[in-house]
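User: Can you write out an input/output pair for a complex, sequences first and structure second?

Assistant: Here is one pair. Inputs:
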Amino acid sequence: MRTRDEQGYCGLVSEVLSSYLDHSLSASLERDVATHLEECVSCRHRLEGISFLLTDLKKLNVIDAPQELSWSIKRAVHREARKEQAISLLKPFPFLASAAAAAIILVMVGFQGAAVSPSVGETTAPLETLSAVDQGQLQRYILPPQIGGFQGAGLYDDQVAMLDSTRSNAPIRLPGARAVSF
Amino acid sequence: MPVLTKQDLEQAELPLMSDEALLSSSLDGNLVAFDLLVDRYYDRIYGYLYRFLKDSDMAEDLLQETFLRVWKKRGEFRNIASFSTWIYTIAGNLARSEWRRRKRWRMLRIGPSNNDDEPDYDLPDESAIPDQVVENRLAAAELIDEVAKLPERYRQVVILRDIQEMSYEEIAGIVQIPVGTVKSRLNRGRLILQEKLGKWYENER
């Protein structure tokens, strides 16, 4: 049975066991710990446990990082380097940078416009899903040229009237027609 | 440090150059020099990030982010510390931010846990099999689990010292704490691990 003093000293020793293993204690403290370890089985067991632990932890150092990782990092860095180079080339000509930015915005807006502008023959939504009764006030139908429609335009009154006369709860089925939501 | 010209670089044997010299060369846009730094460090930094986060996908993402930051900030590097310390500091900061982000996210999702330092995810990561060298795979897995469960401040120093085998001074530079604090955190971290794995080590005696 250990005395209270011995237990207290064990507590102190356990606080420095790790440094003792690393040989980073002062010479006198290291001697004191060594003396205590010779006498104290409990602290010796603790030291052995930490020692085993350190051996195993070192084994974890070997990690096979995926080989392709280095390539993907290099590619990303090279991309970044090209970007930096392009920016540094444009720096002396600030108006060119502005023009380039404007051109990019225009191109993007153009693409967006093209994406939403109607053209005959495309179907943006399945016609079967439309009901003239429910959606008549909100939607117009652009007919394909073969049945008198106009590309990119709404309907003439008589065509609207024709559609009105066919209104029912059943979905309208006009081959090639497309729906435009407003 | 002298600025190297292109002619110098052509003559120099890049692989023999120090990390700091390679970084200096990369300031002039020398990508070959920077590629060499990637080759030298990607494995080690990956190991560090993987052990810290225990998530191979996230480790890969942060590894790439680390090198991109090194590239972007290469002009800010000063030779006060070594390149090694610098890159580990960048990687460590990224890993800690990610860890805290996940912890916050988890707290928002399921409410606060009893132990803030416990990892907020513990899914087995089968995509990385880094521990063939440890004979008993189950035991290695247990050890990895326990390292990942260590509170962040202890985990970082244990990984850097006991797995990556760095000196106290290097760790102090990376974590930006005094050497004495490194020692005390290390001691505490090791004792926690030893207590958790005590039964397992009993069998080895």
